[in-house]
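Pipeline run #58 for the internal structure catalog. This entry was flagged by the ingest filter as a single-chain record with no existing model, so it goes straight to prediction. Upstream metadata was stripped on purpose; only the residue string is passed forward. Reviewer on rotation: M.T. Logging verbosity set to normal.
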Amino acid sequence: MSFQRSDCPIACALDIIGDKWTLLVIRDMLRGKQRFSEFMDSDEGLKTNILTDRLKRLQSAGLLERSAYQNNPPRYQYALTPEGKDLWPLEKEMIALSNRNLPGTSTPLKVN
């Protein structure tokens, strides 16, 4: 991938998913969200330009696919690829770690 700054696997992963929004988009996709408007309904207040950038980045990295569901005007839905679904164990562990150690967190460990 063209994202790599070194051959360190952690650095390579962070180059793709290491910002504060990308794993939240993946979280929403794992929970069944597919359309831009559905992602915008998340509680974290993601801005449209950031969401557009993250969706493009994830598609370029091969973690999601985009397909048209409407032609006029053009509208797209997004689905995780098998490589994108491979992020579920990471997200699951982050949820468990936060639930154990950060008061006020209580996200259930479920995925669609």
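catalog note: The chain is about 50% helix and 10% strand.
catalog note: The first strand starts at residue 64 and ends at 70.
status: ready for reviewer M.T.
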